[in-house]
Amino acid sequence: MSEVTNFDIEKEVNPHFGSVWYSDKPYNILKGGRNSFKSSVIALKLVHLLIPYILKGKKANIVILRRTGTTIRDSVFNKLQWAFSKFGFSRYLKMTVAPFKITENYTGSTVYFYGLDQFQKLKSNDIDDIIAVWYEEAAEFESQEDFDQTNVTFMRQKHELAPFVQFFWSYNPPRNPYSWINEWADQMRGEEDYLVHESSYLDDRLGFVTPQMLKDIERIKRNDYDYYRYLYLGEPVGLGTNVYNMNLFKPLSKLPSDDRVIALFYSADTGHSVSATSVGCYGLTAKRKVIRLNGYYYSPAGQVNKKAPSELSKDIYEFIKATASQFKGARIRKRTIDSAEGALRNQYYKDHGQHWMPVNKLKKVNMVDYVHDLLAQGRFYYLENPIPTRLEHCDSNDIFIEEHKKYRWEEKKKKKPLDSDNPQVVKEDDHTCDEFQYFCVDNARDLKLKL
After folding, report:
1. Which of 44, 435, 366 is nearest to 176 (CA)?
2. Would you give the distance in Å from CA 409 to the centre of its chain?
3. Tens digit of pLDDT for each residue in 90-148?
4. Cα 359 to the chain's mean position, in Å?
């Protein structure tokens, strides 16, 4: 195992993270903007902590947690494999994905990966010999209680040779200054056992932020400066009242002649006797533009005979058939629907044998953030004159634009504006807004949005 000595900290860890690398604190909170490489530093640090145990022939374990288990593969699991490779350690490892684990062959030392949905399992699952725990994207957790309830479990399973279990948290600060995690991190400043570290892409001295990345950052900075401050500088810029900057919804009079649609996506927010049903048809182009091509919108308001699920099922099927048939070679990638909707989903499968995928809902502020990411990249467009279907309740994006113009955060009548840790939107005329969010969240990987 002589290869492990080849790791050069001066080439792999920016000087700004020196306090993290040499930290002797039990609790380490790393907050900062995107491309600050805080997660990369933690991944390297964890491997660095593990290797001395392995070289001594001792088994030691690490636990890594994310709120959503479905994001593990494309984030922390890949990141740890990368970190082990930096130490020349890959050949000594066994990787499994069901469950997610990275195990060193000689000692059995293991890195375990869990989602929030597995917390209860953790409490009854003795891992033992734990030396470190990492909460990645810590702002996605519900509250500090999520940490407190599991930290004690991990502490009880400390490795006998470790002075303590070393905990790490990494996250991008939420927009809301009064978010629980922003206040929690501020409260921990100055605590004897805590390191609170801040970083941004501006702290890079080793050239990890490539010219291409810088160009993309500058594009977002031009499009939406507040979003740039939040996303890349890690500043809690506040929520304001308007949810979106409507200048980032770009109209198209017609489809571009030099950029074909290569994939189609459908997203639905449904209602029956009371609220409206909105279904959006979105196209992804070869040049990575995202275009709202058409929409189905039916409101039962004022209707004496309201559409039943069987009627909506037929309408939506005809809408999809009429739009999809106009894009040869562009297959339907996914149909996404509100996870709370069961009746129409079941009806549609019964009628047409096709599944709608229920979206994995997040807090509203996090759902909105996926849309912000797409908008700030300057890649979202809508057709002023949608591709024609000549069907009832279709062939217009006007309601989509009007609802987004009116979309607002609730104003709290308290001392602190929007001081709830889970701010909400005004729930009026928001059906296209919801289905747009479902589309962005459920297709984040295809759309190259943050995960």
Report:
1. 366
2. 20
3. 899 999 998 899 999 999 999 999 987 665 565 556 789 999 999 999 998 888 888 98
4. 13
Which amino acid appears at position 447 of this protein? L
Mean pLDDT over 167-196 rounds to: 92
The contacts of residue 200 (CB under 8 Å, 6+ apart) are 32, 33, 36, 232, 233, 234
> By residue range, what is the domain housing residue 9?
2-209
Encoded tokens for 223: 């499009």
**Inter-residue contact 401 to 248 (CB < 8 Å):** no
Q: Is 118 exposed, middle or buried (0-12, 13-18, 19+ CB in 10 A)?
A: middle
Q: What is the pLDDT of residues 285-341, one digit of tens each?
A: 999 999 999 999 999 877 767 888 999 999 999 999 999 999 988 999 999 999 888
Burial tier of 43 (Cβ tally within 10 Å: 0-12, 13-18, 19+)? buried
Q: What is the pTM of this model?
A: 0.78
Domain membership of residue 237 (yes or no) is no
For residues 190 and 254, state if they share a domain: no
Number of structural domains the chain divides into: 2
Q: How far apart are CA 101 and CA 341, in angstroms?
A: 34
CATH number (domain holding residue 424): 3.30.420.280
Tokens found for residue 326: 């106009």
Residue 161 belongs to a domain: yes
The alpha carbon of 65 is separated from its chain's Cα centroid by a whole number of angstroms, namely 14
Which run of H or of E encompasses 252? strand 250-252
Domain edge (last residue) among 190, 209, 228:
209
DSSP state of 416: S
Q: Please report whether residue 231 resides in a domain.
A: no
Which structure tokens are listed for 397?
A: 């994006």
**In Å, how far are 21, 64, 151, 163 from 25, measured between CA atoms?**
11, 18, 15, 11
263 shares a domain with 176: no
Say if residue 185 is in the same domain as residue 279. no
283 membership: H or E segment, kind and range: strand 277-285
Contact (CB, 8 A) for 359 and 312: no
